[in-house]
Hints:
By secondary structure, chain A is mainly alpha-helical. In chain A, 56% of the residues lie in helices and 0% in strands. Chain A is globular and about 30 Å long. Chain B folds into two domains: 4-249, Peroxisomal Thiolase, Chain A, domain 1 (3-Layer(aba) Sandwich), CATH 3.40.47.10; 261-409, Peroxisomal Thiolase, Chain A, domain 1 (3-Layer(aba) Sandwich), CATH 3.40.47.10.
Amino acid sequence: MSDIEERVKKIVVEHLGVEESKIESDSKFIDDLGADSLDTVELVMAFEEEFGCEIPDDAAEKIVTMKDAVSFLTANSN
Amino acid sequence: MRRVVVTGLGAISPLGNSVETNWNSLLENKSGIKKITRFNVEGYPCKIAGTIDDDLIDENIVPLREQRRIDRFITLGMIAAHEAFLDADFIPNDEEANRYGVIIGSGIGGLDTIYKNSSILDNQGIRKISPFFIPSSLINLTSGQVSIKYGLKGPNSSPVTACATGTHAIGDSFTLIKNNKADLMICGGSEAAVCNLGIAGFAAARALCDTFNDDPEAGSRPWDKRRSGFVMGEGAGVLVLEEYEHAKKRGAKIYGEIKGYGLSGDAFHITKPSEDGNGGYRAMEMAVKESELPLESIQYINAHGTSTPVGDLIELSAVERMFENNKNIFMSSNKSAIGHLLGAAGAVEAVFTLKSLQNCIIPATLNLDDPQRETFIDLVPKKLKEVKIKNAISNSFGFGGTNASLVMGSI
């Protein structure tokens, strides 16, 4: 597992209160991990904070799964 | 005529995180007032308050992750609601859920959350504002959270009447049940305004005690000559009110009955009570009238008694006027022990009043060394009294000239 994936997972565990073992690469934040729309806004803010980048709203809307988050942050983190 | 009884109690205050610890501490004359350590009070005229240690907030009831997304006032409300709900031993079923509601108010709501987000907005910009900021600070979100947690789909609202909030919440719930709009209501108030902006604001209004910073436990001293203002406290009180037949049918334990509710406005001043005490008098009068009790059958007044120079004597005069033909009357102030819980005060004090009725014990008014003036009313100075109480009044008055009174009694 990449370092970025590890850090994303940690944030998801902390914010959504889910067990780490339940998080898979194609897990959807809303459908599989119990997030609601406010949770996803907060998740994106936490990603921005952790990775020191800005995630514009149109990009944030496309981050639906773990994999989406990891790919975006791999390409855009500083 | 539908009667309304109390079948569950919950409380968290500077004296403890359950009704039992609160009541026992009250009877032991303990004070919950301490020096403020939560934030830097250098330069503050008042440096004391009634605070709840974080380790008394049970994470099994409100998990830490959840606590981060709700202001402290909601957390405290949910803790008290949980205790009251368990105490009532009641499991709502889906068919009747529309008849079960929640009215838990707050005087100020998420003041600290608003303060912090305001600083974030100024210093870091809009992208750093949490999506939970608004739902964590809105006053009616305690009612919202409690209704979601327990599946209560009946009436749902939250009064905001400053320091009378808790009493209005109970009175409004009583009225709803009596008028057949609900069978059971979870009601009360919660407050967590012991934060820098809260203390600073009330200090600026010259409402807080500023003469006992080195002796916190002596700061709240209703009717005493050396009182200099109220001491703020935080906490929550929640009651389960239930229609009498509904409660009997399920064999619920009954603490007492809500018999009357009165409310009035001073139409006088934004922070001062009307000097003739007429507002408080009319609230009590309306509550007594609804109860249909003769004044002689009321033995105890759980006072608003905040320890402010002006308010204490105005309430005393109003009670003297009402009970001039019933000289065997007792009045004490729980605020001498827990401080002034603002929007939660009336609710926690209603819990204590019901415990007084149940146990026939009147908790003392602490620190009442030297009463401001003579009165025929027994203010229960410094030592509790065991008195046969059948009925009692609980008063709450708030900024804006809002007054509320409840008559409670044994069933």
